[in-house]
Amino acid sequence: MKLFVYGTLKEGYALSYVLSKSKKIGDYITKTKGFMMTGFWYPYIWRKEGSKYGIKGELYEVNNDDLRTANRIERGAGYNYEEIDKGIFGYVYPKKIDRKSLNIITNTKEKYYEWRKFDDMPKV
């Protein structure tokens, strides 16, 4: 099973230990467009009709134990577990979040959003 993650489950982030028994395939940008992203302490992505943007994150070959733990955390927080690209699953928030965030990198050339680490935040 392939799991796409884009926030706290990524390597080096607060919940990365959840995927410690799974194999990281590498960085990944969704082929599917039509997403929006925001987030302060953790990111939200949701589907937005007409959006030309994908999401950048990481792809894992996830084992059943790690998937079960990730599902408890993410689905417990209100995210839906969905097929994002063919054969690739991830967590999508079911509704729009109306907050802008400096934690989001918008790559207008390659058309994706990415959640940055707090260490990488621009100084205001």
Short overview:
By secondary structure, the chain is mostly beta strands. Helices cover 10% and strands 39% of the residues.
Can you tell me about this structure?
- The chain is mainly beta and 124 residues long.
- The chain has one domain: Roll (Hypothetical upf0131 protein ytfp).
- It has one helix at residues 64-76, and strands at residues 2-5, 23-29, 35-39, 43-47, 54-61, 80-85, 88-92, 104-107, 112-115.
- Strands 1, 2, 5, 6, 7, 8 and 9 form a 7-stranded mixed beta sheet that branches.
- Strand 3 (35-39) and strand 4 (43-47) form a beta hairpin.
- The longest helix is centred in the middle third of the chain and has 13 residues, at 64-76.
- The chain is globular and about 35 Å long.
- The chain starts with a strand and ends in a 9-residue tail after the last strand.
Count all strands and give the number: 9
Query: Given the helix and strand composition, which structural class is it?
Result: mainly beta
| Dominant shape | globular
What is the CATH homologous superfamily assignment?
A: Gamma-glutamyl cyclotransferase-like
CATH topology description: Hypothetical upf0131 protein ytfp
Distance between the termini: 41 Å
**What proportion of the residues form beta strands (DSSP E)?**
35-45%
SSE pattern: EEEEEHEEEE
Architecture (CATH level 2) name: Roll
Give the count of structural domains. 1
The averaged pLDDT comes out at: 93
CATH class, anyone?
Alpha Beta
What does the radius of gyration come to? Answer: 14 Å
Helix content: 10-25%
Biggest sheet architecture: 7 strands, mixed
Low-confidence stretches: none
The number of distinct helices, counting runs of at least 4 residues, comes to: 1
